[in-house]
User: What shape does this take?
Amino acid sequence: MRNKAFFAILAFVVLIACNKPSDFGKEIISGSNIPYEQLDTFVLNAVSEVDDSVRTYVPGSVSLTMSNSIVGNVDDPDFGNIQAEAYVNFAIERILNDSLNFIQLDSAVWEVYYDTDSTGQYGDISQPMSLEVFRIQDSVKVQDTLYSTKSFVVDPVSVSGIYNFVPKPLPSDSTHLRFKMNDNFLNFLKTLPDTAFSNSINMRNNFNGLAIKAVGKTKALVRFNFINSNNNLKIYYTKPGGKRDSIKLITNVNCVRHTMYKHDYTGSRYLASITNPGTDSLLFIQSMAGPRVKILLPDLSFLKNDALNFAELEMTVADDNGTAFPKPPQLWLYKKNTSGSIVSITDGTIAINSGYRGAFGGSLEEFSINQKTVFKYKFRLPKHIIDYIKGNEGKELYISVLGASSVPSRVLINGGKNKINPLKLKLIVSKVI
Assistant: This one.
């Protein structure tokens, strides 16, 4: 038992000390006289399954709320269609000091800035698209946590639109979209009570917010940052006597920022793999509430009397993954806790709490194998496997995109039955004397 404890501690030390998962435990056995055996011939059973939803908005929390909002309607032959709609509500930065009953509403303009992270655009961002803005009719409560399956009822008639434009969400351009509101919106404002814009609470009680939706299919998804300090909805008006002024509405950290995702897998390669799983040894991972991977660990009870020095899970990106859509920069490994919720495995939690997240792995790595570029994801999970061997953990593991709500990405992974670079569990084991 003392030997087993030693190896378990050693695994923790290596997890924290090493930042390169691709080394696969060489630092443990290099230069030592410890007899060991490397096991990597397990056939892993793994399937792709659809996650119910992802959390998009948590009241008052910047870290738990989506970092950006996503809009589009994209077809993907591997993953099917994904439709994304963005919803926001507002706070008042500049209140209305005049009575609505005695002013002339002239115009309204909503300026929306792209997310500053221009990397990993999802789809062909060079193709034109059309977007429309709708007024939300449902009550939008800032105190409600929201998930990606939630959609709000909107007025069927749009209040603005931009058509056949080419998005330019790059730092070199830094452009934004300028939605000029039509008479439908101005006429709505004229129906509001006189105190509607006296404070943010009154305003939200009378104006639930706006939604942005794609018109028809788009070739890409675009990302907006609704809490960018430059964003604003300005309502221009003329006072009695002819002086012009404006009301300024903003979206801040206390406002709802939500994206609804809707998937249609009809005709996709993913759906075909579910219908006939024996014909395609591929695994499908997509953010934005798309498929995740469930792995069933093999029976490792035969190692109960041995010492596990190290464990690594290796995933290779399929050759035909393509380049039209970005690969996730970071995957994460989860388990189900006793209440059935998906949580990080202990190895990942230890790495984060110790400030060495890279030691756990899960980031996209590029290799050159036989003069060919190969991409892989690798996880170090010795603590979890030790606990699994002891019977303290279940056999199910889950893999999905870290930041799955707001990082648009997808990837095809070689399954456990793939003949070349299959999904693999690699162990370093020593016999305890």
Summary: The two ends are 10 Å apart (CA to CA).
